Amino acid sequence: MIDLYKLHWSHYVEKVRWALDFKRLPWRGIDIAAFTKKEMRGFDCAQTVPLIHDTGTGVAISDSSPIIRYLEETYPERPLFPADPSERERVWQWMLRLDSTLGLYARRLGYTQVIMECPQTLAELFLPNFFGGLFARRGWRALASPVVGMMLTLRFRFHHNRQDRIYEQLEALLIPLVRRLERDDFLVGGQFTAADLTLASLLRPLRIVPHFSHAPSLQSLFVWQEQLFRTQGRDVTFPYEDAIRAQRQRSGSMRSRVSWMQAPDDRQAAPVERESLQVASNDQQPVSAWTVLRGLPAYLKLRWFSGVKKMPYMPAAYLGISRSRVLHRA
Ligand SMILES: N[C@@H](CCC(=O)N[C@@H](CS)C(=O)NCC(=O)O)C(=O)O
């Protein structure tokens, strides 16, 4: 039995959940308290989720890509890596590169979008069981959500999205991926691997960021992702996606136009990094309950004056395309 310590909406957790299901390994999920992580304190490894404890071997390990590599080495049936060593290494490098770029940037922009459009979701995600579910109730939720939002803003630097060029870096990363996946079905070799699983999982938060989810140039990437979800039996939407869609339908608008971006043709393509990575990097900044109030101006600015402008709500084109393709197949 494998215990998976998790925050259920985390895209890094979804990577590992998917790998466990793909390999048909028995596992059970343990939800952690996001701000204390007290359930994981006994384990001598980095205190991030996903973290697994394999009760069969006694191994405890965190960090999604090393976890998947451990699963592959310990339980080689239903492989997620190719047999060829050079292809294996390419899969590994894709995983580390996507963890260190796409995973971090998509997380920043996904939470930014939630803060801009439906911040009350934050209390539901982060404090579902605090004081017997008090903060999941309407009035309390409205009080608690900005505090969670301030904490997250400081931890992941949402207020510096513009100066850190997060939108631009993501575009530069995704456009070549689109080209590659329009040519081939998978990132490495001719089979589904942990590299594809990583890309499809880490892309999840961008499904609520209209700058990406609605970009005509990226529709085929989201169709590719959604078809993988459907063929592999993954949840197609996460609850925060449903919450933000409901909010958009109610208000008739979405925060979509990134006012400082140049027209696509004027942008410089960033050079693709090619150095070999050993570990994935992370971007969490230290924040304590005492320093959280420093986040108030940043949070308010992000919520009301982020420079991401309202547009009329419409569903992304890929949603219609994916569904009609699946219906067509059926
Ligand atoms: N590179 C790590 C990233 C894991 C990570 O950053 N997890 C977040 C959840 S998405 C976490 O543990 N957050 C807890 C915190 O910020 O204290 C991986 O691939 O597992």
E-strand count: 6
Q: What molecules are bound to this protein?
A: glutathione
Structural class: alpha+beta
Number of helices: 13
Based on CA inertia axes, which overall geometry fits? globular
Largest sheet: 4 strands, mixed
Overall radius of gyration: 20 Å
InterPro entries: Glutathione-S-Trfase_C_sf (IPR036282), Glutathione_S-Trfase_N (IPR004045), Thioredoxin-like_sf (IPR036249)
Organism: Dyella halodurans
Domain GST N-terminal: 4-79
Protein name: Glutathione S-transferase family protein
Characterization of the model:
This is Glutathione S-transferase family protein. It holds the Pfam family GST_N_3. Residues 4-79 form the GST N-terminal domain. By secondary structure, the chain is α+β, with helices and mostly antiparallel strands. The chain contains 13 helices and six strands. It has two domains: 2-80, Glutaredoxin (3-Layer(aba) Sandwich), CATH 3.40.30; 98-329, no CATH class. The chain has a four-stranded mixed beta sheet, with helices on one face. It has a two-stranded antiparallel ribbon with strand order 5-6. Strand 3 (51-54) and strand 4 form a beta hairpin. Helix 1 (11-22) runs parallel beside helix 2 (64-74), helix 6 (138-156) crosses helix 12 and helix 10 (219-231) crosses helix 13. The model has no long low-confidence stretch (mean pLDDT 91). It binds glutathione. The site of glutathione (GSH) has 14 residues, from helix 2.
